[in-house]
Amino acid sequence: MQHAQPIPFEPQVIRSNLELWFTQHARVLPWRENPSPYAVLVSEFMLQQTQVTTVIPYFQRWMSQFPTIQTLAAAQESDVLKLWQGLGYYSRARNLQAAARKIFTDFHGQIPSNPLDLKKLPGVGHYTAGAIAAFAFDLPVPAIDANIARVLARLTDFQHPIDTPSGLDVLTQAAKSLLPQTQKGGRALTGALMELGALLCSPKRPRCADCPIRSDCKTTNPENLPIKSPKKKTVALLEKALWILANDSVLLTQQTGKRSHGLWKLPICEIPPETTPIFETIYPFTHHRITLHVFAAPPPNSLDPQDRWFPISSVLEEAPLPAAHRRAIKTLIHAHSQPPTHSTIS
What we know:
Low-confidence stretches: 342-346
Order of helices and strands: HHHHHHHHHHHHEEEEEEHH
Number of helices: 14
Largest sheet: 6 strands, mixed
């Protein structure tokens, strides 16, 4: 196991240079303008595995519809999923609402500041707990996301995988060494490290000449860091679904699985009709590469309890849909409204 060691330079100098740079170059982000505990909670859930530019409009719409933790806790799950539509990883939306409800039952409606309490909330892990504590409450606690991990690995020239328990421990100790030894100050330092990784210390072609802490950085080959464990091989899968119309309505099936509970999809079939797909798309899911084929099919004789007809004119507004199925339905609705053709849509 690789044991953590203190960083071999003066943390106060690095911290001062970082924070000065941050005040001059930080992006204007809506959750930074008003870092209330609720705004930070929402933004951190949305930012998991999603880029900032993608999150901003979703965050703004979310705060407009669910402006307080009370409104989120009281909302219908279908409304929550519909507003989340397009961000993917829908378990985050369900966990966010579950966290809001737990805050009312266990914390009197107040988002806790202690990372140990924060980690009791659904969907809140080590990083998210630290980020909420730092950004919402200005506490000097470490929060290691991908950007910060890259900065710290290069700063310390850490030559071991960062995505292992021992690697994370080394980076956490480095982050703790940089934090002010007071009861406040976590917001600026954590924000500066994160922004440095996003704007300058990028994975490829880092802008080292512009870095405010370049004189303290120990690596000589920044693009070789951080080191990560070998990735899992991508697995190719085929998903077959049906396009079933009747009376200007489309048949959808509500999902019950852990990851996709509450979402609607085109009905899945094991044995598709012996015809050419009328729609095809490819989408990633964890370490899978899924090809979705959609086939035209007649209406069934009877419906399962989870099946429902949606009017074609409003299905995209009414039903929370995974991105690939939403893309299929949008394309096929457009084709349905056009004169018949014999070409395959893809």
